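Appendix B. Chain record.
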Amino acid sequence: MADPRQVSEEISRLFDEASGDLAVGDLEAAVEKYRQCILLDSSFFDGWHALGMALMKTGHFLEAIEAGLVATRLSPNDQLAWSSLSMFYVRNNQIAEAESAGVKARILSWGGKIAKEDPEDAPPIFEGKTTI
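Structure tokens predicted for this chain:
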């Protein structure tokens, strides 16, 4: 899902470069560039989601989970975000959490909603230090 807000040219360039790195298998470079994206804009959903996927591919499952949780907080009704988070949990052998995230993805696939779509109701994100 694309971020509905406009992102800066710098973020767009970094995101595209990171995606290119990912495509050619330079996972560490992709992770670093996705991290730069979210440092520039902590509410950039696509950056968090892509970072989680890249971290999972590098075997950093706890960090992938953290990124996935932020993505689901930013866009709680995004089916792909919940499906990805479920996969991150599976890779970390957290089956109960994976099943819970998977259920949310399934609810969304049926047309349901997880949370209100009003961003002003959402809790603040990315406060303080993070391991990402």
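Further analysis of this model is presented in Appendix C.
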